[in-house]
Amino acid sequence: MLPHGCPRPAPGGAVPEPKDLRSRHGVLKLDLSIHDFQEKDGSVRYCYLLPDGTQSPTLRLHPGDLLILHLTDDLTDLDTTVGGARAIYGPATAHAPAMTHGMATMHGPAMEMSMQKAASDPCTRGAMTAVSTNLHFHGLTVPPVCHEDDVLKTSIEPGDPPFEYRFRIPANEPPGLYWYHPHIHGFSEVQVLGGASGALIIEGIERADPTLAGLPERVLVIRDQDLLNPDAPPSKSEPVVPKLFIDRDGDSANNGTGFGRPAKDLSINFVPVPYPDYPPARLTMKPRERELWRVLNASAITYLNLAVLYRGAPQPLGVVAIDGIPIRYGGSPAPAKVRVNHIGLPPGARAEFVVEGPPLGVPGLLVTRTVNTGPGGENDPNRALASIIAASDAPEPQSRLPAHPKPLPPPTLPWLGDVKPVRVRRLYFSEKLQNPNDPTSAVAFYITVDGQTPKPFDPNSPVPNIVVKQGEVEDWIIENRSPELHAFHIHQLHFELVDWSGVPVHEPFLRDTVNVPYYNGRTLEYPSVRLRMDFRDPNTVGTFVYHCHLLDHEDGGMMGIIRVVPADAPPEAHNAEPAGTGADASTGTGAQRSSSDHIAATIPH
Ligand SMILES: [Cu+2]
Fold it and tell me: Which of 3, 87, 5, 72 is nearest to 43 (CA)?
């Protein structure tokens, strides 16, 4: 029997571990369904359920394993204004989707036929409504095609038969923490904020660092959610902060103090830690026992800056992997472990680190420290997440790393940081008031290739913003021209952060999500990051997206399309949107093609 209403633990409870589903004989097969439920206060919960009612299982696979996941869309239209316009879209109204990909230039019978065909096929439907869903496997280098990791056209609707995701984990997928979540443009924030997310682990991290062998491991998924007590005054133990400012989404704006009402509450493995008193969840460890913590920031819009405090003193965290990849991997000159005493995680990012439990009688606390999101950002104050309690009879975590790891094979390609980029591209984040004369009007969010005209992500555009050749390495300089912090993310691949606002950074490891600092309006140049982008893996061939991982920004248009063409593709395959035209789908190069070519041209390879 499935539970009703996506039940969640009470604040202050023990941190439960998500259920582990492990591949057997090279295959992990599961049935997953997505549900929604509206709270009395109007906020909406979303949950991924196994047939036995378990929520958000951790999927554990080895490189080379086959994943077969049947996803059923059990979403109902809750008719709420939370998260923007929510259109009714069941099978009965399938001929009137709110937004449909790739059809902007078709007319007459061809369009009707295509729409009927598209409406019946989740692979080409492209519909994006409140009850549509799909899956993105964040961080995996799996091809961006239907039934694998396409999010541009794949759209599953209520009433569809279970939709099959079926792909093999690449044999060279680095071991570490990845995750799955819905990626329906316009509705990503509401689904992820409601709790639709789960961890995915590629086994073998101990092979990158033999000192991890035999360690107990713990998966911690930190999510954000609407405030449980939005009207409460801040705790009396906090310094008094300036007046509360509310941004256009109704969230608390950054007040720059590190205190005050947050934009969202946080939860840890679904145990909420609500404002204003942040009663920590409870995590017990054997005294001084070392554990590998695999921490995922599955928040929709909240930045984390994690620290572990014993009697208030920050403890060393031995970081072994970032964003699913061991820091010593692929020929990187990094040590196996880097000791830090705090670690920043933008939404979408992961960190895997070794923590030593507190001695008996010493109180421990996992906290997130404030993140300065800029004058235009949301409030991410200091707050507790979980108390860490040392107990001799503490239960061991449910999973333990293998005791006798076989070393990883040597890298087959040169270390990314040693490869000379074939070209440099510039992109920038920007925001614009819809009505420049009205400061309360909506904000448009853009990520723009320098030289092109800023415009919101257009799922109908047949022309990618960027075309890249597989096998090449490029440097991308990403500026932030807006007064708030953004988090750049790209599907299908990882990159190395090379410099930060023009200053070289020594970070010999890979990421798939990175902060881009906000513009304070005073410096001569915009802040930026320079990223070495790795298009060498043949699995990156296809059409996919890059975007800000603050999902309200992504839903609001801060996303672009990249096409990676095969290394031997003819030159005409290399056409990206030309600079300065701002061409849209009705006037762009796609309009000259026949409608069937047009569709083919917009389906990812
Ligand atoms: Cu953003």
Answer: 5
Q: Verify cis geometry, omega within 30 degrees of 0, for the bond prior to 316.
A: no
Q: How confident is the model at residue 433 (pLDDT cuts 50, 70, 90)?
A: confident
- The radius of gyration of the chain's CA atoms, rounded to the nearest angstrom, is 23
**DSSP string for residues in 244-273:** --B-TTSPBBP-SSS-S--SSEEEETTEEE
Token pair 């929510």: residue:
86
How many of the other CB atoms lie within 10 Å of CB of 244?
Answer: 13
Q: How far is ligand 1, taken at its centre, from the CA of residue 516, in Å?
A: 9
Taking Cα atoms as reference points, which of 20, 399, 334 lies closest to residue 174?
334
C-alpha of residue 559 to centroid of ligand 1, in Å: 10
For the cut 70, the answer to whether the pLDDT of residue 308 exceeds it is yes
Task: Give tens-digit pLDDT for 103-143.
Answer: 333 344 444 444 444 468 999 988 889 999 999 999 999 99
Cβ-in-10-Å burial (0-12, 13-18, 19+) of 276 comes to: middle
Q: Which domains does the chain have, with CATH numbers?
A: 20-203 (2.60.40.420), 210-400 (2.60.40.420), 419-602 (2.60.40.420)
Distance of CA 378 to the CA centre of its chain: 18
Q: In DSSP terms, which residues pair with 304 in a beta bridge?
A: 345
What tokens appear for 195 in the block?
């709790």
> How many angstroms separate the alpha carbon of residue 553 from the centre of ligand 1?
5
Q: How far is the CA of 135 from the centre of ligand 1 (A)?
A: 21
Contacts of 175 (CB under 8 A, 6+ apart): 63, 202, 203, 204, 205, 207, 208, 321, 326, 408
| Residue 565 β-bridge partners | 469
Contact between residue 95 and residue 29 where contact means Cβ atoms under 8 Å apart: no
Read off the pLDDT of residues 40-91 as tens digits, 9 standing for 90 and up.
878 899 999 999 999 999 999 999 999 999 999 999 987 654 443 333 222 2
Q: What is the mean pLDDT of residues 449-471?
A: 92
| C-alpha of residue 141 to centroid of ligand 1, in Å | 23
Q: From the CB of residue 335, how many other CB atoms can be counted at a distance below 10 Å?
A: 12
Centroid of ligand 1 to alpha carbon of 497 (angstroms): 18
